[in-house]
Amino acid sequence: MLLTISLALIVLPLLSISLYHAFLLRGVGVARHSDIVEGDRVFLSIITPIKNEPRDVVENYSKHFMRLFNDFGNVFECIVVADYTNNEMFFDVLNSIVLWDGIFIVRRFNGFGGRNGAINDGARFSLGENISVIDVDGYPNHDVLKSMMRCRDVCVSWWRVCDKGLTRISRTIAFLTEYGSWLYYKNKFLKNLFIYPLGSGVTIRKEILSSIGLYRVDVIQDDLWLGTQLLYRGIKPRLIEPMCVGAPKTIEAYLIQQRRWAYGATDILKRFGLYVIKSPANTVVKLEALFYLLQPIIAILPGIGFILAGISPLFESPRPCSVTDAVLITAFLASLAIESINIAKFHREFTDYDKPYVSGRASALSAITSISIIPYVIASLIGIRIPYRVTPKSSEKTKDLTVTIIAMLFAVLLAIAIFRKSIVSATLSLMILTASVYAMIRLS
Known about the structure:
The structure is a single chain. By secondary structure, the chain is of the alpha/beta class. It has 15 helices and eight strands. Helix 1 packs antiparallel against helix 10, helix 8 packs parallel to helix 9 and helix 10 crosses helix 12.
């Protein structure tokens, strides 16, 4: 019975996500950029929070916007809000910033509210009618900047990865980033669904942000929280041109990012999901918006299923494959087939990936992620606070043992399954062990 339950936990969430993606892509074909209703151009305030960023990243940011300022003239400003309590570190990064007439540096000593508090402080200093939050590794082009200046309410610039890198892991993470952005922004907007404002690349009228009360400082996923407030007020963000952004370069950085997102999204669902339910949107839009917030919880179910399948031989004797097991295995294969079709549609627009290989690497990384985020989703559900951790933007490796621990865990579970002669349990444990070993050897 436990093995059957574990199979259901693995298969049904994967099938639901594949069908969800197919629903988003149904009828849209190759997605095209949708024109937005443009308003008059207004002065734009770009707010960029920084904390412990690499010098070269900060330098590239200042040079990029200086070039745009020279092209456009005095129609926007950059407010860089630096959370640095250490004088040496602050002056080190300050020396890397190329200064020009439209860039302003705001230093914070107490770090109150983390990233959200920094954005709020930047908004208080801002002069623009429109406020755009752009991370230090975000690089809008001329068209994006024009759309941000003309945004009448809330506009979202979806993500394209600037530098996909040359390593297998950097290109795999870039693939996952662009696939998700293409699905959840470009195609959702084409289906007239609600798009949550991204953390970097969102432009909002200052009066709207002020009416909401600026960003809450007790949430991690400020973009999802802002989305619930906009949806509740009947404000629908509109999509503008894609913006070039950075993406994690290592497995360790990617897992840090995914844990924070999983924790933050679960926290938003638990505390603010009622705003979605009470919003004036129609039922389909509400259900889809809630399902989007549910994804971290759905994502950990296969991970829990793999763990339960591994320990099931300790509690029940090996048995032949039942009809229920066969149906679940068939559903699992169906989910893989559906997602393969979804990815094939993505590759019709994004042709710079090695199709057969990047999908396999992404599957291995996704399997590891579904297990590594389990403690964070559970912590969020039961109300344990976890400190905000900025995603490392350099390609330097950190001492993170997550993948090694997962490999050791499933090596033990595989040994138990072999000893107990449970073929299904052994197969499932071998899948995660293989993904972990592959990640350590080929992706690290």
